[in-house]
Amino acid sequence: MISVEEARARILAALTATPSETVPLPAGWGRVLALPILARLTQPPADVSAMDGYAVRAADVTEGARLAVIGTAPAGHPFAGEVGAGQAVRIFTGGIVPFGADAILLQEDAEATASTVLVKEAARPGRWIRRRGLDFAEGEEVLSAGRRLTARDIGLAAAANTPWLAVHRAPRIGILATGDEIALPGDPIPRGGIVSSNAHALAALVRAGGGDPLILPIAPDDSQAIAEAARAARACDMLVTTGGASVGDHDLVQSALGPEGFALDFWKIAMRPGKPLIWGRLGATPVLGLPGNPVSALVCSVLFLIPALDRLSGLPGAPPRTIRALAGADLPENDRRFDHLRATLQPGPEGIPLAIPFPLQDSSMMKTLARAEALILRAPGAPALQTGAPVEVIPLGDLGL
Ligand SMILES: Nc1nc2c(c(=O)[nH]1)N[C@H]1C(S)=C(S)[C@@H](COP(=O)(O)OP(=O)(O)OC[C@H]3O[C@@H](n4cnc5c(N)ncnc54)[C@H](O)[C@@H]3O)O[C@H]1N2
Ligand code: MOO
To answer: Domain named MoaB/Mog: which ranges (predicted)?
Structure first.
C-alpha cells in the first residue's frame, strides 16, 4: 500500500494538459487559459468623468462662482472644443474630459440655469476624473496562461477587446461502472441488485471539476464486456472505472484490461475509505479504477480525481484545500490507513467550526455522504483526540460537490 501523498503525486506526474482550442468569450468560463490575454487597447482610452456634472477648471470653481456652459460631453460623444477660464462643459459619467478642464464639478454641487451653472462647492484638480489607462494599458498582460477563468475574468478579457480565448479543452472523462448487480436509475433491477449511483455522482463531480463526462454502458462482471467497454473509452483523456477493484473473484477490472495492454502503476492506498484504488494506463489513456463502494469512490475522487481533472485542464493539480476545525466528538486512535470521516460542520468557539463525525462511517452509506459538509482527516497513526481538539478537515462545499 502506498500513501495518499505518493498516490496523488504519481497520478499527477502521469498527466499532461489537454491541447488548447479557441472558444468565444462566454464559452471560456471555468476553462484554463492556454495563452495569456494581452490588452488590445488602453482602458479608459482617455481621461473620462467618473460622475455626472460639469467639466471645469478647478481654479475657477470657488463657492458662488458662475460658469458659462459652452457644450455637452456625454459618453461616446466627446466635446470638440476647449474649456476656457470661467467656462464649463456639461459632462456625463464616462464622457471624455474636454481639453482645458482638470476637474469635474458634481451636478449635486451645482445649480444650473439655461446656459450657466452656479458653483455651490469648490472643486480640486483631478477630482472625479478617471485617468487614461487607470485600469490597464494596451499590450499589458491582463490574464496569465494557466488561470481558470471566472466570470470576472471573462469581463476583463472582453474589456481588453479580446473576442476569442485560447483555453485547454475540457478533459473528456469516460465513466465505466462495472458489476452484475447494478442497473442504471430507472432500468429494471436484477434480483439482489442495486442502482448504480456511482456513474451519475462521478459525472456530476467531473462537471464540477471542469471536465466533460461520458457515461459508458454498465459492464457486467465479465472480462470480455469490461474490455470492450474500456476500448470505447480510448478516445477519452482519462477512463474512470468503479467497482471490481478489490480482491474478490468477481473483481475483474485489472484482469480484464490486462490483455488490452493495461499497464498498472499502483494498486492499493493506505487510506479509508478507498483502499483498493487502481492507477495505470490503457495505451495512451490513463485509467483510474475507483472502488465500487459509493463513499469510497467519492472520497477517492475528492483526493485524486479532482486534482487529476485540474492537471488535465491545464492547472498544476493540488491536494484539496483543508481548514482548521475542532473535533465535535471523541476520536479513537487511528491505524495505519489515512482516514476520512464524514462530518457536519457547526459554528464553534472563536469562529472555528466544530466538525461532528457521523457515528456510522460505513462506505456504502450515501445518505451520510450527501449530508456531510466536510471530511475529517485522520493521519496514519494519529493519536486519540478528545472533543474540542483541533483537526484538519476538507470542506466539501468548496468543491461544488
Ligand atoms: N477480502 C477483501 N474484501 C474486500 C476488500 C479487501 O481488502 N479484502 N476491500 C473492501 C473495500 S475497502 C472496498 S472499498 C471494496 C471495493 O470493492 P470493489 O472495487 O471490487 O467493488 P465491488 O466489489 O464491485 O463493489 C463494492 C460495493 O459497491 C457497490 N457498487 C459497485 N458499483 C456500484 C455503483 N456503480 N453504484 C453503487 N454501488 C456500487 C457494490 O454493489 C458493492 O456493494 O471491497 C471490499 N472488499
Ligand atoms: O477502502 Mo473501502 O472503501 O474502506 O470500503
So the answer is: 174-311
